[in-house]
Amino acid sequence: MSHLSEQLASGRFVVTAEIAPPKGTHLAPALAAVEKFEGITAVNVTDNQGANMRLSSLALAAQLQQAGTETVLQLTCRDRNRMALQSDLLGAAAFGIENLLLLSGDHSKFGDHPDARPVFDLDSVQLLDMTAGLMAGVDMVGNALNGVPHFFPGAAVNPAADPFELMFQKVSKKVASGARFFQTQSIFEYKNLERFMLSMEPLNVPVIAGVLLIRSAKMARFLNANIPGVQVPKALVDRLDRAADPMSEGVAIARETVGWARELCQGVHLMTLGHDDKIPGILT
Amino acid sequence: MIISELKPLEELQQALSEFDKLFLVGCAACATACKAGGEEEIFKFQEWLVAQEKEVTGSVVIDEACHIMRAARDLRHHKNAVRDADAVVVLACGSGIQSISSTVEKRVVGGLNSMFLGNVRRFGHYEEMCSLCGDCILNETAGICPVTTCAKGLLNGPCGGMEDGHCEIDAELECAWCLIYERLQSQDRQGVFARRVPPKNWSHRRKPGRYRLKDGER
Ligand code: SF4
Ligand code: SF4
User: Fold this and answer.
1) ipTM > 0.90 (yes/no)
2) Between chain B's N and C termini, which has fewer beta carbons within 10 Å?
């Protein structure tokens, strides 16, 4: 049992953070950064995040796991067909990785290899189904596995998505396909999170709210223009614009969001994009 | 129809650099309809070739360049002009180009890039709505194809990039899943949302495609 699954089961508020593998083979900075994380239950390892090619998430997660840090392996359908996804999952299990965040993935168009052919052989619902199959001892075509993996599969959701009911149809499918927890896209508005958590209630699956540290109004505008599914509301952009010290304003905003999550959700997922030193300030 | 467009002229200049005399082939079907390889485009291309100091020995617009035998027959009517040419330039889709390259001895230069199977929105505006997956899901998706019109070809609903019902790859495009959802709602049915759609059977789409009518169907 992973710590993440245990803590969520016991009702303790969890905190996850994330680390991106390097572009290249130099792992030391990523490993050192994770060493400094405090009060974190598990660390998400991103998978070619934003469709930018980096060292494999599985390789970094395996290293972290062996160094004693619990990870959440992110795995997207963008870069692998169903065979590669299954082999990577079995490989992850062999390295003791249990927590998974199973994603469709951003389109290749957004990253540094826009000419790549995106795969999307499976979607996130099918990936969850396949993972449940592996856990039951069979691959996608029903062949028995010699050695059965144990996972704690999670999925992503954007609580602010519009139309809400359409997004929620997919959430229900993900739960039916074995999603045991959700990590959300960055939360910016209380009412969106509240509405989402109300709908989640009957499903009884823990939700870890995404909290993004926005360092400046400029960064907020960049996110709005370039990152799929991220829309920083104008009120927050204005607040950052007016702030004398935008970074500490960003930390304050993140701290408020963590407060909403403590009230409504089962945990927070902190995205500090390299400013890990701000984590204690966000959590206080 | 197959939507195609003229290759960049610099690329064609390069491809034609070793030839002096050329025979031109167009197609009266799709390439004519999308104004890439009809009578008019063949004429314009001929003028361009002349400006490049090439000699054009003749030209023909074949009824359907993708019909291998008919293409061969039509070309036979121009035997001499083809014989006099160093190469044959084809303004047709990739299928059409290959009908020709499999029937003439000469080198064949394709003049078009073939892009997709397109619907005509209005004159000059083409949209891809079907990518010929061999296992059609339209009856469950209110007649809107997610395999093609969702940028990721997702089968179980929208991705997290949908913003206000628009697609993450292009804010001008409506999210296919939003359209499917709205139309299903207006038809008062659940359709594809009633089940988890299993992974697609891509063996239907194994390349190269082959299909033969059975004896009684011919
Ligand atoms: S599902 Fe889409 S791609 Fe497949 S045959 Fe139907 S319309 Fe074409
Ligand atoms: S936004 Fe909609 S159409 Fe675009 S990739 Fe996502 S699900 Fe597909």
Assistant:
1) yes
2) C
